[in-house]
Amino acid sequence: MSRMTVWRCVSLLGVLGGMTGCNVSEVEGAEESGTLESAAIVGSIVEGDYVIRSAMTGKCVDVASGSTADGAKVQQWDCNGSNAQKFHISPTSGGYWKIINIASGKSLDIMGNSTEQNAKVHQWSYLGGNNQQFKFVGRGNNQFSLHLRHTDMAVDLYWGSAVSGTEYVQYPYTGTANQHYTFDRVDGGGTTPPPSGTGCLTRNDGRTNLRFINRCSFPVTFAGNNISGGDLASGQEACRNIGGTTEMMLTKRYWGFRKGEDPGFEHHSLAEFGFNEVFYQYNSWDWFNLSHVDANNLPLKIVPYDLSGGTTCTGQTRSCPMDMLANCPDVGKLRNAAGQVIACVSRDRDNPNSPVAKYFDAMCSQSYSWSGDDAGPMAACNAEDFDIVFCPPN
């Protein structure tokens, strides 16, 4: 039985109080302020330096307080770019690897060489023990589970908690998101690094520009109902101008898919917008959300950029960075000719109690999970430009 907890946060769409959204740990990190990190998520592991993130929370594996001591706590923490969150991964033998913290030079290790469930992960001087060696099992969408050599149990974020400081333990593999991780290569290897700064965006030009960024390890085709689409290699970006910053544009939708594997109409994760709307005292504001009302096929994120001098977009990032295909309920699985799941489809979009809607709701509180889900996913601010990120790290 999975020990992963599920939650959602509920906020009122308070017009008079302003749109504060629903700030949860899934979107903590550098991109919330409209900046991008220089790491690249990888689809395979080779020797190198990595940041390791929980697929469930987007937070980083971290040695507490940057300690160099044997027995120091290993925990999840907000990603901060420090060496306490960087690990050198190198092969040992038989398909296993050691994971050495850059700051301390010490290994991830199961405490006391224990074979018990819930034994803690900490750091220890590397001695070559089987409790210090891991194999990486690909779970789709650039995510991996980590299995100890001495027990074959998975490294597990304890109870799936989103709280910073939560420890990691070993536990039998259950397939839940708190046992899945992404690896960001930070030593110059891996896939092409994604853009930094604002890239192809032209800021403060009185125009609304959308920047599409591919952080997947595979090529992505992007599209929308008021733009010309295109293809993005891993790490590439493309910008599209859609009009002026006061021009009302209603019901605009954007999506993407693995190049050559379009799941078809109403089978995509959607970034939805109403640009420059007038609503009560909110003049020319942008309203936007992520939608899984119809389906999920790719992790997706929206990052708004304020008009010059503005602060209304603070906290309005929306992100669902986790892989939702691996554990999609059987009734929702859409497969390609090779039998691979390429979308998780909600065939009863108006029913909050359908298996797929309940699954979407549990996986990400930052998106619409069914057609009437109005309690928190919507965001609003007076923005100029936006990033739409495929396979975001957080």
From TrEMBL:
Per its UniProt record, what PROSITE patterns does this chain match? PROKAR_LIPOPROTEIN (PS51257), RICIN_B_LECTIN (PS50231), THAUMATIN_2 (PS51367)
Q: Which GO terms describe its biological process?
A: xylan catabolic process
Query: Which molecular function terms from Gene Ontology are attached?
Result: hydrolase activity, acting on glycosyl bonds
Q: Which UniProt keywords apply?
A: Carbohydrate metabolism, Glycosidase, Hydrolase, Polysaccharide degradation, Xylan degradation
> What is the protein named?
Endo-1,4-beta-xylanase
Q: Name one Pfam family in it.
A: Thaumatin
Q: Which residues form the Ricin B lectin domain?
A: 48-184
Q: Does the keyword Nucleotidyltransferase apply?
A: no
